[in-house]
Amino acid sequence: MARTVRVELGERSYRIHIGSGILADLGHIVRETLPRATRALVVTDEGAGPHYLDRALAALRAAGIEAGSATVPAGEPAKTLSEAARLYEACLDTGLDRDGCVVALGGGAVGDLAGFVAATFLRGVDFVQVPTTLLAQVDASIGGKVAVNLPRGKNLVGAFHQPRAVVADVTTLATLPAREYVAGLAEVVKHALLRDRGLFALLEDETSAVLARDPALLEDLVERNCRIKGAVVSADEREGGLRAILNLGHTVGHGVEAVLGRVEKGEPGATPREGLLHGECVSIGLIAAAWLSRRAGVLAQDDLPGRLEDLLRRLTLPVRLPPGTDLAAVREAMRYDKKARAGRLRWVLPVRVGQVQVTEHVRDEDVEAVLADLSRPLSG
Questions:
Q1: Is residue 338 annotated as a catalytic residue, yes or no?
Q2: Could you give the CA distance from residue 286 to residue 128 in angstroms, rounded to a whole number?
Q3: Contact call for residues 108 and 82 (beta carbons, < 8 A)
Q4: What secondary structure letter does DSSP report for 267?
Q5: Could you tell me if 105 and 53 are in contact, meaning their C-beta atoms sit under 8 angstroms apart?
Q6: Where are the strands (E) in the chain, listed by range?
């Protein structure tokens, strides 16, 4: 039986459905959630489509919903205004009206793009998230932030447009490349640090099963993460306060990603390069936050940095910067962090496992010292 988590947003509340094999229930879920919907456009990418598009279309059609489809490039290259324009045409070709819906089948980039199209086509139509990556199931598909990129930056054109339902089938994680799956675990660790000591202990105790993608364990992990993210979004939909805690690990992480992150062929205004995945940058950012917390006098659990580093290493996530990293460039990139206010960075620092504090009182010299420490190779 599928598990459900409810995101409470008044008349825009929605359920997250979590289970093994529940992609087959997609049509039933859409029909139950959107009884007036007779047409749907399924937007997928080149990674998820070959595995799951036919199943999604069959499930929708079995429920009496006429469904068309459109496939976009995998990853960030899909998040462009030109791809959005192509999807608007696909919406028209499918005969979508205001009672129809857009279904996002794939990773976080597909959700961002399809959600943006849903938010703007006919001044807004419903959409349903069907995330097929761990990062999307535990984080990106929840919260309603949708956007496309411009050549001068990511997510510069967007909206808040909540899904009407999220359908997280954990069996889709079986086809995810190992590196992408592991990168998604960084957000799981982040959520555990934020609000769930039990989840942190579970990750420590069941590391091998987590890496083996045990389906029963994955259902539990995804549900617990959705409850954490869902509760934060319910309390602060538009980042007015509490939602800032979700940026734990992302201040240094985004700086690292700007300098060392993977850039895919087709991203506007960028030269392709191999590099770190988002979750890998977050992993390094989590270590930085733990060390900064100690230096800032915020840390109240002395063994937290060591336990965190040990867990991330066992999950095969990076805990140090690659050799030769330009630390000045990382610092410069951090200046453009979206959480900054009046030129001051707002840091999310762990107090203990399950509790964090947001502060602006972090000294520049401590940041420089931590980055220097992160650039030194691991001992032992």
A1: no
A2: 31
A3: no
A4: -
A5: yes
A6: 3-7, 14-19, 39-45, 66-72, 101-106, 126-131, 145-150, 153-160, 165-169, 347-352, 355-359
Residues comprising the binding site for NAD(+)? 108-112, 132-133, 145, 154, 172-175
250 is catalytic: yes
For 76-130, how does the pLDDT look when each residue is reduced to its tens digit (9 = 90+)?
999 999 999 999 999 999 999 999 999 999 999 999 999 999 999 999 999 999 9
Examine the residue annotation and report whether 123 is marked as an active-site residue of this protein.
yes
| Predicted model pTM | 0.94
Cα distance between residue 232 and residue 226, in whole Å: 10
What is the spatial distance between Cα 57 and Cα 109, in angstroms, rounded to a whole number? 20
89 included as an active-site residue? no
Cβ burial, residue 7 (10 Å; 0-12/13-18/19+): buried
Choose, from 15, 83, 250, 257, the residue flagged as catalytic.
250
- The H-or-E segment that residue 118 falls in is helix 108-120
Mean of pLDDT over the chain: 95
Annotated binding-site ranges: 108-112, 132-133, 145, 154, 172-175, 187, 250, 278
Residue of 76, 83, 187, 219 with catalytic role: 187
Q: Tens digits of per-residue pLDDT, 274-288?
A: 899 999 999 999 999
Q: Is 247 a catalytic residue?
A: yes
CA–CA distance, 307 with 356 (Å, rounded to integer): 16
Pairing of strands 126-131, 14-19: unpaired
**Computed from CA positions of residues 18, 129, 62, 49, in that sequence, does the dihedral angle turn out positive or negative?**
negative
Q: Give residue-wise pLDDT tens across range 175-225.
A: 999 999 999 999 999 999 999 999 999 999 999 999 999 999 999 999 999
Query: Is residue 145 annotated as a catalytic residue, yes or no?
Result: yes
Write out the binding residues for Zn(2+). 187, 250, 278
d(CA 318, CA 162): 33
